[in-house]
Each structure stands twice: as C-alpha cells, then as structure tokens.
Design goal:
Strand content: 15-25%
Number of helices: 8
Shape: globular
Order of helices and strands: EEEEHHEHHHEHEHH
Number of domains: 2
Helix content: 25-40%
Structural class: alpha/beta
Bound molecules: zinc ion
CATH topology of the largest domain: Rossmann fold
Number of strands: 7
Length: 214
C-alpha cells in the first residue's frame, strides 16, 4: 500500500446527456493536480460497482484527436455507468500516460517518424507508461466503494488497483472503434503493453497502416 491520501473538498451536481452525475473535487498529498470523481447513483458501501479509472487526454477528449481512443472510451464509460444506474468514473490528471502534454506532443512527432508509442516514450527518457493508480484507490475508498467491476482493457490497471487494496471482481471490456488513425496505437497497446484488445489484433493484418509511407 502506498502512503497516498486524498481529501474530498466539495461535491456538486453535473447534469449530462447520460444523466445526473456528481462531481467530487479532491486534493492529495502527492501532487497539486485536480483529480476528481464523477459518479452516478448510490455508490457507498457497494460491491461489484461499475467503475472506470480514466487518465486525462486533452487531445483526444477536448480536441477530438483520432490518434487514440480516449475520448470514445470516456463517453462510452459514462453512458454505461448511466445505463447501469450507478457507478464511478475516477478522472486522473495524468496526461499522456503520465508524461505530460508537452512530451506527449513530442512523442507524437516521433511516432510520425515511424516509432511506435512505446519506443517514442523511451526515446524521450520516459517509461512506456508512467501512470500511477494509488490516488484512484484512495478516491474509491473515500466514496465507500467495496469492490469494482473495472471498465478497462489494461491488466496493469487491474493489478495496480488490487495492490492498492481495491478488489476487482470483474473486468468489463471497453473497446472503441478501430480507425486508420488509431490502429497502430491500438496494436502497440495490444502487442507491447499487454492490453486485451481483440478488435485491434484481429484486423491489424488487413488494414493499411497510415503511419507507413506512401
Ligand atoms: Zn488519448
């Protein structure tokens, strides 16, 4: 267990196209970032609650970039939680798998030169994935969540939450659409980062890779 702690400062109602969510603002002892929880329905003392632990992606979520599937995963998770009637989306401010916006943009340029997402991060002196989930675990504890069905394709996220004391009773896949723009990103996730992405792996042989020259 890490020694991270969080404090809930306030909670407010946010109506969305999917339903009425509550947004909880947290401070913590590890960084000065604004990590939040976005939840719907009764979540306190609940087991097997539908939960998404989502890391910020400015380019994908705000600008609609097609380089990744983050925006689609975020919207799909909010919709699934609303359809279920209860659940939590923990939104962590760890842009670009934790390397920050500037280095993410530099990594995109390296990817356009032919490096995959893992090698681009390594060339910039980073780990392939620098995200940390201890604050997500503290936030889920603060909300009183007992165990989660986690919306993810990422086994590392499951293992990290369990190591932080949050039981993951099931994995719920969260696959978006594979497009020519995000295909190589998804294939690298599947092949080099152990993500469970059936769609990306199954069709990767048939589709033209936009990052190969022509
Ligand atoms: Zn993204």
């Amino acid at each position: 267990m890490s020694e991270s702690t969080v404090s809930r400062i306030t909670s407010t109602r946010i109506p969305t196209q999917f339903g009425d969510y509550q947004l909880c603002y947290y401070t913590n002892n590890l960084d000065d970032k604004e990590h939040v929880a976005f939840y719907l329905g009764d979540v306190a003392e609940k087991s097997d609650l539908l939960v998404r632990v989502h890391s910020e992606c400015f380019t994908g979520e705000v600008l609609g970039s097609l380089r990744c599937d983050c925006g689609e995963q975020l919207n799909r998770a909010l919709k699934m939680i609303a359809e279920e009637g209860a659940g939590v989306l923990v939104y962590l401010r760890q842009e670009g798998r934790g390397i920050g916006l500037l280095d993410k943009l530099l990594a995109y340029n390296l990817q356009d030169e032919g490096h995959d997402t893992v090698d681009a991060n390594l060339l910039l002196g980073h780990q392939p994935d620098e995200r940390n989930y201890s604050l997500a675990a503290r936030i889920l504890e603060d909300l009183g969540v007992k165990s989660v069905r986690l919306l993810t394709n990422n086994p590392t996220k499951i293992n990290s939450l369990e190591a932080e004391g949050i039981p993951v009773s099931a994995r719920v896949p969260l696959e978006g659409e594979v497009t020519p723009f995000n295909k190589s990103y998804l294939v690298t996730k599947a092949e080099r980062m152990d993500h469970i992405l059936r769609s990306a792996v199954v069709d990767r042989i048939d589709t033209h890779d936009p990052q190969s020259a022509d």
